[in-house]
Amino acid sequence: MSQQPNKSELTVLKHFWTIGEQSAREVHDGVSAETGWSYSTTRTVINRMIDKTWLTRRDVHGITVFDAALSKVEVFSGLVKDLTRKVMDIEGDLPVSMFAGSPHLTSDELDELDALINSSSVDDGEKK
Which Gene3D superfamilies match (predicted)? Predict the structure, then answer.
C-alpha cells in the first residue's frame, strides 16, 4: 500500500476490524458519536475507500454491505514505519511491546506486527 489511511479512513477501518461487515447506515451509526459526521459524510468516506480498494462491497438480500479489505496489522505496520523511519529517522528494530496494551491487537497480531516492522526487506523502494 503506497498511501496510508487518513484519520477519517482509520476510524472507519477500526470500526470494520471490530464489528465486521456492515451497511453504510450501520457504519454511520457506529462511528457518528465519535466523528460527528452526517450520513452523507460517512457515505463519502466509504465511497472514497471503495475507490482506493480499501473496502469491499457486496449485496446481501438487497442491502449493500461493506468490509475492510486491508489487514489491520499491515496498516498499523505501515503507519509505524512511516512515523519511525521517515519522520523520526529511527533505524534498527523497534520495540513492538509498546503496542501490547492496545485493545486492537491480539498477541498473534503483535507477533505479525513485529515481523513486518522489523523485517529487513525492501519497503517502498528503500532498503531497511
Answer: Winged helix-like DNA-binding domain superfamily/Winged helix DNA-binding domain
Q: Show Cβ contacts of residue 38 under 8 Å, excluding neighbours closer than 6 positions.
A: none
47 lies in some domain: yes
Evaluate whether 128 touches 120 at the Cβ level (below 8 Å).
yes
| Separation of CA 94 from chain center | 20
Residue 15 belongs to a domain with what CATH number?
Answer: 1.10.10.10
pTM score of the predicted model = 0.73
One-letter amino acid of 115: A
Residues 6+ apart with CB under 8 A from 21: 65, 66, 67
Kindly indicate the confidence band of residue 47, based on its pLDDT and cuts at 50, 70 and 90: very high
Contacts of 80 (CB under 8 A, 6+ apart): 94, 113, 117
SS3 category, 117: helix
